[in-house]
Each structure stands twice: as structure tokens, then as C-alpha cells.
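Hi Q.,

Before the meeting this afternoon, I wanted you to have the WQD prediction in hand. No need to reply - just skim if you have a minute. The sequence and ligand are here:
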Amino acid sequence: MGKILVTGGCGYIGSHTIVDLLENRYDVISIDDNSRSTSYLLDGIEKITGKKVKNYKVDLKDYNDTRAVFQENEDINGIIHFAAYKAVGESVEQPLMYYENNMFSLINLLKCVQEFEIPHFVFSSSCTVYGNPDSIPVTEESPIKKAESPYGATKQMGEEVVQNTVKVSSAKAILLRYFNPVGAHPSGHIGELPLGRPANLVPAITQTAIGKLPQMQVFGSDYDTRDGSNIRDYIHVSDIAHAHTLAIRYLEEGRNKTNCDIFNLGTGNGVTVLEAIKAFEEVSGQKLNYQVGPRRPGDVVAIYANNNLACTALGWEIKYDLKEMMRTAWAWELKVKEDEKIIKSQQFQLN
Ligand code: WQD
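Predicted structure with the ligand bound:
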């Protein structure tokens, strides 16, 4: 099997994807500048797979340093590009940091795709490109709406940059639009390590349950949904990870319909915030300390995926249900508490 370059390999979805690639006999290297990650998850990958993955601590905004990795690895057969900033709220406060980081990194990588004639490129996109959809579930043909945040804008622009670049390259690309990745690898050796106060729902739930946060806020229960809280399509990170391996294989086998196919990665089930909290309470045996507060600006009322295309074309099968997502997320939170000193010392060097 070819060598796959995973950017952001020390991060949440990147580390889970590396595990899946290794388990499917790919050779993998990572580029991660560790600006928002540490080597902790690489150690977890080694515990799961027995393999040590080389990470190039390179800032993708530096073209020469990025290019040097390709000069040193002439056998790269595919790239999966995760490395990007992804905090919606932070992107509103610091738009230029988001445009610079997310776009310059992507452009430098694509320059290398062209120069070194890398055949396959998988881009980490997001359901955020659909904005507030007119009808749900959304398909890959659903209209792209004006981005609700600079983060979302970088995903929309990123898709366009990839699409237009592969039109004039020999490379073939795939855009994967994730819904809400949650949970952790069943081994408990890798998971999400949010820096600072978590913006996303599931880490906010588990950090409240373990006592890191005093109380959790439910951002609004007066929406036009079955229980008044927002609807999302939560999908286990290991299911997301496997879809990346299937996407690379789909390109390697030449099954792509266009030079830039698009797939929704969601379960196809809409779950409300209050239902997610209830599922957590059932699997953890913990009563969650939360209160309903005001709506969060920019929140989409309801969105979930039509995932038929990914299931049929990629042969993707969802393995984890909502309770398993919550069980693995909780097990990971307990593990992070055990390793708190190690993680803090590494993150200390980060900050
Ligand atoms: C989910 C729901 C909140 C926290 C964003 C990006 C998406 C992806 C995932 C990167 C919403 C509610 C949350 C809390 C709450 N980003 N919530 N209390 O906003 O759907 O998606 O993150 O990969 O691209 O758009 O995810 O987890 O922040 O929120 O009530 O403390 O949980 O209002 O309804 P979101 P989220």
C-alpha cells in the first residue's frame, strides 16, 4: 500500500485516521506543528498499533519547510489534510488568524501536490458549509449557504480551492463533509484533547461530569424542534476515520466519478442537545449538572445528513451508535484525568 501523508496527525480526527490507515496496512507520516496538539496522541497510536509514526513538526504556512517533507518522502501516494484551526467562536474574534492559517496551509500543500504529482488528496470539510439548511436531511447537492463564521468560510473557500486546483492537475480529490465528530477510540488510548474551555457539546458534557467545569449551559431550548434544543448529527470519530481510508482506496481503485467527489459523513440521525445529554446520563450513570441558557449566536437550528452516497460509493458502514459515542467519550475523559500531569506538562510547553 502507498505512503499516506496525514496533516494534523497529532490531532483528534487525524490520530484516529492514522490508526485506521495503519490497521489497513498503509504506511503513514504526519505533519503537525503542534501549535494546538502534543505528541501524546502519537504515543496512543503506538500503544494501539505497535507502530511509531514519524511526525514532521512543520508549520504548513512555511512553504519551504513543507516542500522539504515532500523532497524527503518521494513515495507519498496520497494526502489527507486535517491541519486547520476549527473553533467557530475564536474564528469570529480572530478572522485573519483563521484565513491566514487555514488557507495558506492548504495552498502550500496543493503547490506540493502539483510539483510532486501527488495523485490523491482528501480534504477535511464540514457540514458547516450548508449553513442553516432549508430542508433536512442535507445531501451533497444541498445548497451551500453563506458561512456563519470565518471558520466556516475557510471550509467553503477551501473546497473551492481544491476543486479548481485539481481541474488543472493530474491529482484526484475528495471533499469529506463531517457532521459532528464525537467520542474516542474504544481502546481509550486516543481521544479529543480540547485546549482550554471546550466549545463543543460532548467535551463540555464530559468535563462537567468529571468536575472540570462547574456546570454546563444548554444554549437555548426555544427552537422549533421536538424538544426545543438544536438538532445535530453526532458521528463517532472512528467511523469518520474509517471513511478516510475508504476514500483513499476509492481513489486508488479509480472509482471516482469526477476529479473532486464530495461525501457527507454523518449517521443520518438527528439528535437534540437534550437527547444527547440524556444518552450520556444513561451510559455514565451520572446526573449532569446543566442549565438552559440563552441561544448561542450563529447556531444552526437543525441539521443532519443524508449519508447514502458515502455508504454506497465508499462502502462505508456506521459501527457506533449514540450510546457508544457517549460511553467512549466518558471513558476517555476518565483516562485524561489519570494522565492529567503528563498532558498538562506537554500542553504547558505548548502555551
Ligand atoms: C452542538 C450543539 C450547541 C456546547 C461546530 C462546527 C463544526 C464542527 C463541530 C469542527 C449546538 C450545543 C454546545 C455547550 C450547548 N467543527 N451546545 N452547550 O456548533 O454543531 O459544530 O463544531 O470540526 O464544523 O460548526 O458543534 O458541539 O459546538 O454544538 O448547548 O456547552 O450543542 O448550541 O446546538 P456545532 P458544537
